[in-house]
Design a protein that fits this description.
The chain is of the alpha/beta class and 563 residues long. The protein folds into three domains: 184 residues, Alpha-D-Glucose-1,6-Bisphosphate, subunit A, domain 3 (Alpha-D-Glucose-1,6-Bisphosphate, Chain A, domain 3); 232 residues, Alpha-D-Glucose-1,6-Bisphosphate, Chain A, domain 3, CATH 3.40.120; 136 residues, Alpha-D-phosphohexomutase, C-terminal domain (TATA-Binding Protein), CATH 3.30.310. It is built from 18 helices and 27 strands. The protein has a seven-stranded mixed beta sheet, sandwiched between helices. Helix 3 links the parallel strand 3 and strand 4. The longest helix has 19 residues. The structure holds alpha-D-glucose-1-phosphate-6-vanadate and cobalt (II) ion. The site of cobalt (II) ion (CO) has 7 residues, from loops.
């Protein structure tokens, strides 16, 4: 590799659409492939994060990797050249460019890097006509907060040139350190450090013992959906925990995810769902493209993600990590159900409600206010890193099931764990309706209509279809750690007795709009905790549709995805 290089100064013009969304900049691959598009954004990242109060000085170390999707290799070579020309000191890159989002967060923390550039559009489809994404993470391992993403965006609007080292492409297959001029490039095993972390957090011996004792009864199946978790699942579940390879599905990363939609929900992970039901599998888990989301199911139960994080928090003392100390606090995103709050109250610890997006947990985790947090969108995690973590959630469930079963000397099933939870806390019936690819204008008009309803407060104190409206607002949040304020985070209609509907527009889509309608209804009667979810929620759903005039505005009579 070149020991010195020429720096090419490339004149460019700004793009006006490089505003990062809920989690990074996500666009069609074709958009990133436009002349200078990716280069501009990378240059703006490096310029913006170099401010004195932020993270990347010259000579910084950055972690780089992604979920294996189409365009990953090209993007990494661009980043290497721009980083070298901007005097970055070192890049730590996953072999073949692969790093799951949780593993990248872990590497930033363990290797004391100054930040990272994560190349993923997460659960969005991949391939030449589908999506790509670029996200910047800070020194704490977490997604950049809005002050940083706004600075990046401002910079993209005025950028007039970027710098590129004139060097050949780096071989990403070869483990070890190479140099690009003065910059070091270390290619690392994407799984090793992450697997070591999981071994520290969970009781692998106990899980192994449980899998051995209940080998005939406790059947498992993992679906990597052709995303990046394949190699991680292989190492952890087969090599380390001793399960056969047959428990893994779709575990070879593919640049188009096998033309699938790598989103672990009942609609897109139907292959897993069908097999789990047909083969009477006791424990099934699916992960999204970049490995930060998870879905937990069994042949007789689908664990709603809002319940999942509540169950995990309630049983956290079973994990070696929290055995001595317990957990200090919990947090959930606003649309996530209140199940976690009840656990927080029962454990007598703090509980927080933050806007949608993992970046909002960062300060609370850094500050030691919370240890476990989650989102209704299949995101669960803890302070071990600063991203949500799909594999972590699956291992947490395995640890809980192992501990409970070995203690009881009989197999405790997923459904039994959930039943016990409902018995202790009651149940938050929950559903989310997603209307994907709605006309942007129509979606905005619907939201404006809801804004007006909220502003007038006319419904507050009245009953709609028997639901008593107690509160309506547009959710805003003041970060208790740094005092920063975030507004416009979703329209909430709260009803008496703990029912609620929330409307938001997605901030991760790459085209059109996605309307999300969140529905929640609390049931305290323990005898009524095992009813059919759609049936229980039907009146609330009707009321939400009626108040929002969703069909009228969007022309949609049915959602694209129901969770
Ligand atoms: C969605 C989810 C949100 C999640 C985000 C990123 O955002 O609702 O909870 O944090 O995706 O997840 P939105 O703005 O589309 O509702 V991932 O796995 O795409 O990084
Ligand atoms: Co993801």
């Amino acid at each position: 590799m070149a020991s010195t290089f020429q720096v090419q100064v490339v004149a460019t013009t700004p793009y006006s659409d490089q505003k990062p969304g809920t989690s990074g900049l996500r666009k069609r691959v074709k958009v990133f492939q436009q002349e200078h598009y990716t280069e501009n954004f990378v240059q703006s990242i490096l310029r913006s994060v170099r401010y004195p109060d932020s993270v990347v000085p010259e000579g910084a170390t950055l972690v780089v990797g992604g979920d294996g999707r189409y365009y990953l290799q090209d993007a990494i070579q661009i980043i290497i050249k721009i980083a070298a020309a901007n005097k970055v000191g070192k890049l730590i890159i996953g072999q073949n460019g692969l790093l799951s989002t949780p593993a990248a967060s872990n590497l930033i923390i363990r290797r004391k890097a100054d930040g990272g550039i994560l190349l993923t559009a997460s659960h969005n489809p991949g391939g030449p006509t589908k999506d790509f994404g670029i996200k910047y993470n800070c020194r704490n391992g977490g997604p950049a907060p809005e002050v940083v993403t706004n600075r990046i965006y401002e910079d993209t609007k005025t950028l007039s040139e970027y710098y590129m080292a004139e060097v050949p492409d780096v071989d990403l297959t070869k483990l070890g350190t190479q140099t690009v001029g003065a910059m070091e490039v270390e290619i690392v095993d994407p799984v090793q450090d992450y697997a070591a972390l999981m071994r520290e957090l969970f009781d692998f011996e106990r899980i192994q013992e449980f899998l051995r004792v209940y080998k005939d009864q406790f059947t498992v199946l993992f679906d990597a959906m052709h995303g990046v978790t394949g190699p991680y699942a292989h190492r952890i579940f087969t090599v380390e925990l001793g399960l056969p390879e047959s428990v893994l599905m779709n575990f070879h990363p593919l640049s188009d995810f096998g033309e699938g939609h790598p989103d672990p929900n009942l609609t897109y992970a139907h292959e897993l769902v069908e097999r789990v039901r047909q083969e009477s599998i006791q424990f099934g888990a699916a992960f999204d493209g970049d490995g930060d989301r998870n879905m937990i199911i069994s042949h007789d139960w689908f664990v709603n993600p809002s319940d999942s994080v509540a169950v995990i928090a309630n049983h956290a003392a079973r994990f070696p990590k929290f055995r001595q100390t317990g957990i200090r606090g919990v947090a959930r995103s606003m649309p996530t159900s209140g199940a976690l709050d009840l656990v927080g109250k029962a454990l007598n610890i703090k509980h927080f409600e933050v806007p949608t997006g993992w970046k909002f947990f960062g300060n609370l985790l850094d500050n030691g206010d919370i240890d476990i947090c989650g989102e209704e969108s299949f995101g669960t995690g803890s302070g071990h890193i600063r991203e949500k973590d799909g594999m972590w959630a699956a291992l947490a469930w395995l640890n809980i099931l192992a501990d409970m079963s070995l203690n009881a000397q009989k197999l405790i099933t997923v459904r039994e764990v959930v039943a016990e939870h409902f018995h202790q806390f009651g149940r938050h019936y929950y559903s989310r309706y997603d209307y994907e690819d709605v006309d942007l204008d129509a979606a905005k008009k619907m939201m404006a209509h809801l804004e007006d309803l909220t502003a007038s407060q006319a419904l507050v104190g009245t009953a709609v279809n028997g639901f008593h409206v107690t509160h309506m607002d547009n959710f805003s949040y003041i970060d208790p750690v740094d005092g920063s304020k975030t507004t416009n985070q979703g329209l909430r209609i709260l009803f008496k007795d703990g029912a609620r509907v929330v409307f938001r527009l997605s901030g991760t889509g790459s085209h059109g709009a996605t309307v999300r309608m969140y529905l929640e209804q609390y049931e305290s009667d323990r005898a009524k905790c095992f009813q059919d979810v759609p049936q229980v929620l039907q009146p609330l759903i009707q009321t939400a549709l009626q108040l929002s005039k969703l069909t009228e505005y969007t022309g949609r009579s049915k959602p694209t995805v129901i969770t």
